Amino acid sequence: MTTSSLQRRRPWRPPGQLGGRRPLNDGFRRRAVVVGFLAPALIILTAFVGWPMLSALRLSFTDASGFGQETWVGLENYARVFTDSSILQAIGNTALYAVLFTPVALIAALVLALAVNSPQLPFRGFFRTTLFLPFIVSLAVAAFAWSYLLDPQIGLLNYWLQAVGIRIGNVLEDPALAMPTVVLVAVWKSFGFYMVIFLAGLQDIPKSLYEAASLDGANGWRRFTNVTFPMLSNTMAFVVVIALIAALQAFDQIYVLTGGGPYRSTQTIVMEIYQSGFKDLELGFASALSYVLLVATLLLSLVQFLFFGRRGEDTSS
Amino acid sequence: MTSTLSRAALSTPASGRRTVRRRPPRIRVTRALYFVGFLVVTAAIMLPVIIIVLTAFKPAAEVNAFPPTLTPTHWTLDNFRAIFSELPFARLIGNSFVFAGGVTLFALVFDSLAAYALARLDFRGSKVLLIVIIASLMIPFQATLIPIYQLISDLGWVNTFAGLILPRAADAFGIFFLRQFFLSLPRDLDNAARIDGASEFRVFWSVVLPNAIPALLTLGIFTFVNNWNDLLWPLVFTTESDHGTITSGLTLLTGPGGIIPQGVMMAGALIAVLPLAILFLLVQRRFIESVASSGLK
């Protein structure tokens, strides 16, 4: 996408010109070709991304309910987002979810990536494949499996924990444990994704650095803190941002496992958008909440862009 | 990335095998312990998958028995029979294939056309367009769901495949991803065809696309899996349970206040995962590569 790559390129000439057509006709044909290639995707993206984005903004200033009349209500919906205690709770829950999910998922992913990258481990390919498997399981299906494992009466995991003296009771009915549980399901489903990104990052670290560190007498832990971790910092920063963005969108397993309860302790922003928009039909309010989600995501993306802007240009030219 | 991954994975055991014989027994024991230890960790992590598979084959009495057991004493296919006879399950599977497959097919065609224009046809405004497309990548679909629903509803497309598929028939990430790949292909390839008088579409279709099959596969798998597993989207655009996908349909019938028993639910879960698991095992290298590249490109 850089100017240098554009300048290096030979100007594009339509086939017509080679056949000796008139230049005027050429320009028209050339534009028609460009439009033909771009039109399908751009029509879809305009209709289903661009327009809805503007439409949601307009709706967020109205009391739209899906039935005809819409009245302009100014900032009322936004005022409700930031004053209604139950909505503030949903925003707080989403933040808590993100704060729990991100470090746990990333530490699990990093530890497992280091393990399956270690030359000490036989059959690394097998482990890599197996550990990635949860990523192709949908969050909804993962939620079924975990709810069965954790069932207070017939759950195997619950039974095993009791056998070693740990009583967790009914975690999904416990306001203190419901959130950690829905986070756990998400961590289980997605660590494989982050693990693979870490693996790619680990493969990019030059072997010579480790050799040099070993010559200097660095042991395994020192090699990790002085070579691996600093060399992985770019990957780490990137993964933190995408994990936070993913956490902001928490919905699936919460819908399946708790429906936002108990006592709204797992109610998140997207759960609230779904319920207020599609159950209570408060479209204006749900749109205001959507914009809060949108702005939060854009801010995180901006951080990422500032971090990786230059790198992005490098790969594209 | 995968090539380095697999090369590393292949070369270490090969060179290791030769030296292992000469290695002192202590190192072999360490390696074996490491292997066994990690096998246990992996098995623990895989417990939810294991429980899905084993419970799906358990008779109802054993599913609800206390104390719970891991493996069935009597293996049975009753759960699978039940899910097909009591639910419109075959319908849900079909819907999932049409939805995820349809989105994938449309997105690959439309994305690659647009990506080709951005990579190969220098037109005025191409840079601005690219920036707009990259910026739109950052919009979470959950934030625009309500206006999209209104639009689909106005068109009368709720509970239709058109409503499920068309909004996702093009995708900013796919356009960006394929553009990057097209840029990496040598321009001499298509210039040669152009000099021979091939039309731009012909260059795209017969020269560039065949060379982009790895990237198309990667993107296609990623799109298919994401849509197959998506819950919120089919939940919103299909209000009748037999129009849903396997993911949304199972959820409606088993979620809060669900009506089907655990064993049947696990049979459904197993069937929901199976196509993806097969796809994954067939093309796992490309699959893992697609994840790595979605992160790094």
Please describe what this structure looks like:
Chain A: Its main location: membrane. Chain A: It is a multi-pass membrane protein. The complex is a heterodimer of chains A (about 325) and B (about 300). Chain A is about 75% helix and about 0% strand. Chain A is built from 15 helices and no strands. Chain B is an all-alpha fold and about 300 residues long. Chain B has 2 domains: about 1-80, no CATH class; about 85-295, MetI-like fold (Orthogonal Bundle). Chain B contains 17 helices and no strands. Chains A and B meet through helix 3, helix 6, helix 7, helix 8 and helix 9 of A and helix 1, helix 2, helix 3, helix 6 and helix 7 of B.
* Low-confidence residue ranges of chain B: 1-20
CATH architecture of the largest domain in chain A: Orthogonal Bundle
- Extended strand count of chain A: 0
> Strand pairing plus helix content of chain B: what structural class?
mainly alpha
User: Which radius of gyration of chain A do the C-alpha atoms yield?
Assistant: 26 Å
Tally of extended strands of chain B?
0
Per DSSP, the total helix count of chain B is 17
The class by helix and strand makeup of chain A works out as: mainly alpha
For the biggest sheet of chain A, the summary is:
none
